[in-house]
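Example record for the data management plan.
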Amino acid sequence: MAVVDATTKEMEALHVGQKQETEENLSKEGKVANSNGAVPAVQSSPPEDDDEAQADGPSQDGAPEAGKKKRKKSKAKKKKDPLQQTEPPSIPVDELFPSGDFPEGEIQQYKDDNLWRTTSEEKRELERLQKPMYNSVRRAAEVHRQVRKYMRSIIKPGMLMIDLCETLENMVRKLIKENGLQAGIAFPTGCSLNWVAAHWTPNAGDKTVLQYDDVMKLDFGTHIDGYIVDCAFTVAFNPMFDPLLQATKDATNTGIKEAGIDARLCDVGAAIQEVMESYEVEINGKVFQVKSVRNLNGHSIGPYQIHAGKSVPIVKGGEQTKMEEGEFYAIETFGSTGRGFVREDLECSHYMKNFDVGHVPLRVAKAKQLLGTINNNFGTLAFCRRYLDRLGETKYLMALKNLCDVGIIQPYPPLCDVRGSYVSQFEHTILLRPTCKEVISRGDDY
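Corresponding structural encoding:
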């Protein structure tokens, strides 16, 4: 027994010594033993990945766990930032507005006798039913705003007019996702200069260059499902033309203000003329009163029909016809330093199929083939010779003349005031909604 007791004491002493040595070693590593001798794991450096965690500690018998436990990474779904338009614009507008709701135009209230429409539940319901159509025309308007904003930033003296037009038209095609008769350009880009008031665009091979002292009317249209946005502005680099441009801008805004359900077209024209002819402009030392061009008008717009039957005069003395609920109108004004009267002149570039034309027999094979191209690509929308060239049509002038001679196609030659004068234009498309008036094409620029 004595031998056993001594051995036991020696073993206990040895065990105590080993325990003290272990504690000293652990203390050096920054680890402290707990009361039952278990040593919790202490993380000496942060983990490389927040989603990766160390084991909670050794097992109860003091042995460290074999490896690290990994938690599943919780990947929070990041919301995609809305697309931003590129510079120059290249992203179709329907991708910029994936909800399908496009920006509303400027809202103007009707005059006192129609203010009740604002709160009418019946009229509001009519608008809810028309929302798909409203979105179509607003999409076309958004394309117009983005294209003209870019064009205004790049138009400079020295540009070839044909390059200007093709840059604009190719951008419209891209932003609107041109698709046959469902979406695209509504009519040729008018870029009429100086005394030419409207309906001029360069034909193939034209070498006209934009000059510093030019006054250019840039008039182009977009459409979705035949709902047309017709909108124009004037570009002039020389500040001496500013009063001329301001006259037409203010006259157009006056026409928009006077327009409305039950408004008489003659009253709108009289208000436009009063504002237009209150302006004067001094050009090269000579003062001119700005005149409303009396034989140019705004017009109602229908599906696939740029001129739908009603004319909005820009002088007094027009028709007593009233505007009606649901109608679209192009309110456009022309101010001139010339006679204030235009006539057809210069080489024709604009053409359009007559909206109400019936079946007309054709004997010329080329004319039949050309009519097929026109029907498939333009229908009753206006087109120009450059558009036919783009579609691969060649040697078509005689066939086009034949279509004009039999009344299927109507030519629209340039409209000109007296040579040496200057004409300015501004234009917006408005919609007479049941509850309010919406200036569809309004933008930050005008």
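Summary line stored alongside the record: The mean pLDDT is 88.
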